Amino acid sequence: MLQNEDVEAEFRFLTTEEGGRKTPTKSGYRPDHLIKPDYLTCGRHTYYEKEWVALGETVLGTIKFIDPPSYRHSLEVGQRISFQEGARIVGYAKIIQIFNEDLKR
Hints:
Shape: globular
Low-confidence stretches: none
Largest sheet: 6 strands, antiparallel, barrel
Distance between the termini: 17 Å
Oligomer: single chain
Radius of gyration: 13 Å
Mean pLDDT: 95
């Protein structure tokens, strides 16, 4: 596994006008992720070659989830999951690669 990360993803941050955040975010950001239709979990984002991400920007990076054994076999390459702050969706992550075999559907 790459630095013990669970997945590699392409992150797309919504603009404020699209309902997203009001400020940019940086590597280490920990939003909630909708892993299954009825299951939210926290995960830490690490962005490649970039510390700050502007609203509306798309970047590559990884996610380290808080408790992968609780949602085994929930993800597949190409799947798009939302990430959010409370009930507000602030962006989407498209799964590019799954490093944690337990998460593969």
